[in-house]
Specification:
about 35% helix, 5 helices
Length: about 130
């Protein structure tokens, strides 16, 4: 089966390097978040969507859904058949060695608090 990947975050360090690596194994397209809304895009051809873009206000300010790009992507393409790969942060967990997804949640900054809210929304929606 031919899997194709859409990476959102063309200017992102992670997006750029993820694209470089994954294109050795999959058909990969990379777009900026703005391109996602401005280009005619056949979203049905993608098996996976990975968002590596982030709004600067999402990092420092209290949660506001208009700055939550992951949520916007899911809301726009909700009824499509793809797997969404959510990039989270270790900042949401209590600092210690060998954290896992079952570790105690204790966000250390506003960005981590916002990521928890996004993750909870995605769990309910998906």
């Amino acid at each position: 089966m031919n899997h194709s990947v859409l990476i959102i975050g063309k200017k992102s360090f992670i997006g750029y390097n993820l694209n470089k690596y994954l294109k050795n194994f999959f058909e990969v397209d990379i777009l900026s978040f703005e391109d996602l809304y401005n280009k005619k895009l056949n979203i049905y051809k993608y098996s996976y969507i990975i968002n590596t873009s982030i709004h600067k206000n999402y990092i420092k300010k209290n949660y506001n859904r208009k700055f939550d790009l992951d949520r916007m992507i899911i809301d726009k393409f909700y009824n499509r058949n793809f797997k969404f790969i959510f990039m989270n942060t270790r900042k949401i967990y209590k600092p210690k060695i060998n954290i896992s997804e079952k570790s105690k949640i204790k966000p250390i900054d506003q960005y981590a608090k916002n990521k928890i809210k996004t993750e909870n929304y995605l769990k309910k929606k998906l």
